[in-house]
Amino acid sequence: FVTKYRTRRRQARECSGEADHHEGMSSDDELTPTEATEFQKSKDNVLEDSRKIFEDVHADFCDIRKILLKFQEWKEKFPDSYCDAYISFCLPKLLNPLIRVQLINWNPLEQNCTELEEMPWFRAIEEFSDAKNVSESK
Predict the structure, then answer these.
(1) What ranges does the record give for the region Disordered, renumbered to this chain (predicted)?
(2) Is residue 11 part of a domain?
């Protein structure tokens, strides 16, 4: 099916006289202006909806740094119950939705893309991990 589709696109390009296509290059990513506009509109809608996801959540529970601070306080005040709760296994599942929302617009293929290590959520987790290692060494 894919070969037939590509053959039809090649024939359509030949008939229309498009000169900007280079043989051997994929035309799968070529979008018509209408498709590009529709894609951008859909993308904008998704981004707008993503901004609303946590709007009714208390600020202490939608900020990764604040959540991790709560866990750090728990660990320092009640280390036995913290350890018994297997928090290290729970944190990835707990933080996953928050991180995913922040990554919705992230595209590693863009030239001006922010590296993962530079994102605030990554640094917060890194600091939490460092604090964890320091307290364990004590």
Answers:
(1) 1-43
(2) no
**Lowest-confidence pick of 14-18, 64-68, 87-91, 104-108:** 14-18
46 Cβ partners below 8 Å, 6+ apart?
A: 104
Indicate whether 36 belongs to any domain. Answer: no
78: left (phi over 0), alpha (psi -120 to 50) or beta: beta
17 in the Ramachandran plot: left (φ > 0), alpha (ψ -120 to 50) or beta?
Answer: left
Residue pair 102/119 in contact (Cβ under 8 Å)? The answer is yes
Burial class (CB in 10 A: 0-12, 13-18, 19+), 68: buried
Q: Is residue 46 included in any domain, yes or no?
A: no
Residue with tokens 């946590």: 54
What's the CA gap between 64 and 52, in Å, rounded?
17
Over residues 5-28, the pLDDT tens digits come to: 677 777 777 777 655 655 665 555
Summarised one tens digit per residue, pLDDT across range 76-92 is 999 999 999 999 899 99
Give the global pTM.
0.65
